[in-house]
Amino acid sequence: MALIDKVPGDLRLYIGGMFTLRRREALQQANITHVLSVLRSPLDQDLFSPFKKHMVVEVDDVEDENLLEHFPATNQFIKEGLDGGGGVLVHCAMGKSRSATVVIAYLMQEHNISPSEALSHLRQARSICEPNEGFMKQLELYGEMKTPEDVEQTPAYQRWVYQREIELSRACGQAPEADKIRFEDEHVPDQSSDFELRCRKCRRPLATSQYLLAHKSSLDDGDLNVETSPAASTKTCAHYFLDPLSWMRPELEQGKLEGRLECPKCHNNVGKYAWQGMQCSCGQWVLPGISLSKGRIDEARKSTVGIRRPPGAANVLGQNVGHSKQNL
What PROSITE patterns does the entry give (predicted)? Predict the structure, then answer.
């Protein structure tokens, strides 16, 4: 058995744990020039003196750790080492979760493969590789985002970070800070939608179909895990659950855990919100719970002639433009 585990293929890419760093002769034979340490522990710098470059990503092996934000930098470091003609070692404490996640991210970008395919490939070299559940979800999101060079500017990543903020606020029993709230209609590109939701009293457009959120109904067909589409949810549920929109800003930025949503034109009560979540009439818990009441809203199918812009603070001219929501 080889003393250090090489990722199958032509790449001189290796994976291991802390003990791998003590196999000096094997590392020298592999011509390791770059070492990437993915762990949050004091490191003996003498262990890294033989290598040309050393990079440290300080993360813990826990599911809520954000390793996704580091993928562009770790991919670039690995690429630099391989392009320079040397070998690259990626290690964590055990060579099982954190280092595997980073190597998988590189393989995904390099070979345009899925996380599961990259993991299967990696396990040919090191069978114990198993990213924790949170890291696997981050790899899946990274794949859905098409492994971008700039993760932080990607709308899907921004939505993911926003959701993490909401979950953290909920755990603390507080509303999210005003500057952490993501008003979706201010971040997505223009696109058409199937229908609008209008205030039943004054007919003011409040949302378009692309801002509706799907959720899993506990009543659909007796299946506890059936996910309903946004359109299906409008038929089976008493509320329209949706993303925060800019017309809600005055209310949502008050720092309250829950409250009412009023139409910005006629001030009629059209819905409610609860940052800690809300149970839908179908039985499913939705987090965060931002909803419009079906009894106070009309669903208006859109014509094929023009598309009206979803309501927002800047929509003072009522321009006929649409927005679309990016999927996670």
Answer: TYR_PHOSPHATASE_1, TYR_PHOSPHATASE_2, TYR_PHOSPHATASE_DUAL
What range defines the domain where residue 69 resides? 5-153
Task: Look at residue 282 in the predicted model and tell me its pLDDT.
Answer: 82
Q: How many domains is the chain partitioned into structurally?
A: 2
Identify the CATH number of the domain in which residue 268 sits: 2.170.150
83 contacts: CB under 8 Å, gap ≥ 6: none
How many angstroms separate the CA atoms of 276 and 166, rounded? 8
Q: How many residues can be counted in the chain? A: 328
Question: Active-site positions?
Answer: 92
Residues 78 and 198 reside in one and the same domain: no
Contact 218, 249 (CB under 8 A): no
Q: Which long-range contacts (CB under 8 A, 24 or more apart) does 172-179 make?
A: 173/257, 173/276, 174/255, 174/257, 174/275, 175/254, 175/255, 175/256, 175/257, 175/275, 176/275, 178/252, 178/253, 178/255
CB of 196 closer than 8 Å to CB of 207: yes
Contact 156, 327 (CB under 8 A): yes
Q: Is residue 317 part of a domain?
A: no
Question: Crossing angle, helix 98-111 and helix 115-123, to 10 degrees?
Answer: 120
Residues 128 and 206 in one domain: no
- Kindly report the CATH number assigned to the domain that includes residue 55: 3.90.190.10
- pLDDT, block means (10 residues), the chain with 328 residues: 84 96 94 97 89 97 96 98 96 97 98 97 97 98 96 91 89 89 83 87 94 66 44 67 95 95 97 92 87 93 53 41 36
What end-to-end distance do the CA atoms of the chain give, in Å? 41
Q: What is the CA radius of gyration of the chain?
A: 24
Q: Is 277 exposed, middle or buried (0-12, 13-18, 19+ CB in 10 A)?
A: middle
Q: Are residues 201 and 76 part of one domain? A: no
- Pairwise CA distance, residues 279 & 287, whole Å: 9
- Indicate whether 203 and 141 sit together in one domain: no
Task: Classify residue 204: in a domain, yes or no.
Answer: yes
Take residue 307 and report the two structure tokens written for it: 């598309």
